[in-house]
Amino acid sequence: MLLTLSHNDQLRFKSSSPDEEALVKAAADLGMSLLERNLDVLRVYSTNEGRLTNTEIRAGEEMESYKVLNIFEFSSDRKRMSVIARNIDTNQIIMFAKGADDKILERLAKGQKKKYIRARVDAFAETGLRTLCVAYKILSEEVFMEWRAHFDRASTALENRQGKLDELYAAMENELVFVGVTAIEDKLQEGVPSAIYKLRTAGIKVWMLRGDKYSTAIQIGKSCHLLSHEGSLHTIHNAPESEMVDEMVEIDKIVDPKTGTHSIIVEGPTLAKILAKNDM
Asked: Which of 119, 126, 78 is nearest to 99 (CA)?
């Protein structure tokens, strides 16, 4: 994430990730502005007056500085990312986590409204928004230092280094306190819907791979004209291995180009099972 100043001293954010840029801008609009970020220290400024400009920056109690101690990188297997940081002013150590709702909700501490949270996430996803859950955890100095000793040993291991690190990440990412849900519109590039529509009308079969929730993927498929609003939609969703073959046989019986447009949606784990079997 890069910070620059425009000609009118307005803070501007630039990032290789559109999602990251959108989230930082949204936080700034809500009064929590990122002012500085170097290799391992960042400064944020909170105000009740919305996004700051450089000329409005004032020293005082509203300024907070954090030193990044560890980063648990995102991966397609983990589906989450965490950062451990120390508040330089208070010396408090906090772990911030963001990720897919199922990965974050299963790691929340007891007593939090998981059903309500899941319902809100699903409501966002059904409108085509891509969602992330955000949570945090306060760490004592003793707990962090003990974990850090294990981390230092694992990070220099000669065998199964990544596996050992993933185990340590998972051990720390628990008993989280829920903060909220982010929902970002996944805007299509200009011309995508018409291009996909022309491919389909030419008789070309198109596959789309998405990393979203099931309901979000359906909405995106419809918005880009890959899925027809009038056509038949067939799904293989969360199917046990024993039932997948039966479902595929039934779909094969139904799907007939002469009877209209047909689309098939297969959830990722189910597709992996299908591709792993030569007889399917």
From this structure: 78
Inform me whether the pLDDT recorded for 10 exceeds 50: yes
Q: Render pLDDT for 181-210 as a digit per residue (tens, 0 to 9).
A: 988 887 777 888 888 888 878 888 887 777
Burial 94-112 (b: 16+ CB within 10 A, else e): bbbbbbbbeebbebbeeee
Q: Quote the DSSP letter at residue 62.
A: T
Dihedral angle, C-alpha 251, 257, 261, 263, nearest 10 °: 40
pLDDT at 4 over 50: no
Residue with tokens 């009038």: 230
The tens digit of pLDDT for each residue in 228-247 reads 766 677 777 776 777 777 77
Q: Compute the distance between CA of residue 203 and CA of residue 274 in angstroms, rounded to an integer.
A: 25
Nearest to 262 by CA among 217, 220, 230: 230
Number of neighbours of residue 263 by Cβ within 10 angstroms: 19
Q: Is residue 81 predicted with pLDDT exceeding 70?
A: yes
Strands 11-14 and 2-5: antiparallel
Helices (H), 30-93: none
Task: Answer yes or no: are the C-beta atoms of 136 and 94 closer than 8 Å.
Answer: yes
Q: 97 pairs with which residues across the strands?
A: 82, 135
Compute φ and ψ for 100, nearest 5 degrees: -60, 145
H or E element that contains 43: strand 41-46
Q: How many C-beta atoms lie closer than 10 Å to residue 118's C-beta?
A: 15
pLDDT band at 144 (very low <50, low <70, confident <90, very high): very high
Q: Give the residue from 26, 41, 161, 177 showing the smallest Cα distance to 108.
A: 177
Alpha helices in 131-240 (DSSP H): 141-155, 161-172, 192-201, 214-223
